[in-house]
Write a structure and sequence with these properties.
- The chain is an all-alpha fold and 110 residues long.
- The longest helix is centred in the middle third of the chain and has 58 residues.
- It has one domain.
- The model has no long low-confidence stretch (mean pLDDT 81).
Length: 110
């Protein structure tokens, strides 16, 4: 057997060279130093924050539009109810006036 030659094409000596061990920078308190700033969020986190903000604003706008639609839908119903109540009140006054003219005490004049 021939001695080991790193540049040999012999498959017996064709082994994987070990990777160098990773360098771990650590402070005395046990925190890692990796050279990046952790107080600035990465770009995908900023994009996600903007997306969440847009979603919340869109949901709030949709709820506000539904509330406005509901109120605008109630306006004709409330006007009709008011007209009916006014008509019933006037009819009751008319009946009371007719009864009072027959010699009974006048409701409208004490």
């Amino acid at each position: 057997m021939a001695p080991y030659d790193p540049n040999s094409t012999d498959p017996r000596w064709n082994t994987v060279k070990p990777k160098p061990a990773p360098l771990i920078n650590m402070t005395v308190t046990g925190e890692f130093i990796d050279g990046t700033r952790h107080d600035i969020p990465p770009i995908p986190a900023k994009i996600m924050g903007v997306a969440i903000l847009v979603t919340v604003l869109a949901a709030a706008g949709a709820i506000a539009l539904l509330a406005l639609w509901f109120v605008l839908t109630l306006i004709p119903i409330l006007l009709a109810a008011g007209l009916i109540a006014f008509t019933v009140f006037r009819v009751q006054l008319w009946f009371a006036r007719r009864k009072s003219l027959g010699g009974q005490r006048n409701v409208f004049r004490p």
